[in-house]
């Protein structure tokens, strides 16, 4: 590790999908607190947020909360779009072109891209119940939960010019452990992790870039969110989830910050909250 810190530069840009609520919203606030604690005496430090979600009002509210954390946290760009739609990547590409370097005299020294957006899909589907009649709905599911991640990461990599970059995939135990009823969720999470392992091989193993990339698949554990409550009410594993005590999103966000701080994970590793 180059230095015992999360942020490798006092000029940092953090991009979070699914930022309007739940874990994504908590992550934005936790990263802001951590950055300004690290650079508390540095008046020239810059933290830029690019927040992506469908709900503009919630993004506005989050932007105000971030500004209240520190007066220097005044560079917040909102991208209001639906990642389940193909036009979302065009929206993101345009905003990235305008905001990733923002005509600064000095470029950002550290980028952090957090793929947090996602959905649970059907909660009672088994492999032998899949039919072609569901093809259109399944395409929408994988556009949100897989294709948009691949496309957005590609857009991001073509835009950035920096020395340090973290790419974090918010994953799940479902990526490595089958869960009856959660067919698309398990397949989608596993495919995302496979994609980031491929990306790590291209960016890190082959040493084709001067940028130091760190890629992490982080499973935050069962969080007390709308998704968890949905699983308690209607999934094939309803009883199991009803007996599970969920984690506070704040605690899992703190664990992620600790993992990044220690910087001991293998590239593209699957790291769980409970590890």
Automatic annotation (TrEMBL):
This protein's record includes keyword Cytoplasm: yes
Pfam families: adh_short (PF00106)
InterPro entries per UniProt: Biopterin_syn/organic_redct, NAD(P)-bd_dom_sf, SDR_fam
UniProt GO molecular function: sepiapterin reductase (NADP+) activity
SUPFAM superfamilies the record matches: NAD(P)-binding Rossmann-fold domains
GO CC terms, sorted: cytoplasm
First-listed, main subcellular location of the protein, grouped into a coarse class: cytoplasm
GO biological process assignments: tetrahydrobiopterin biosynthetic process
Top-rank taxon, per record: Eukaryota
Keywords: Cytoplasm, NADP, Oxidoreductase
Cell compartment(s), UniProt: Cytoplasm
Name of the protein this chain belongs to: Sepiapterin reductase-like
Organism per entry: Dermatophagoides farinae
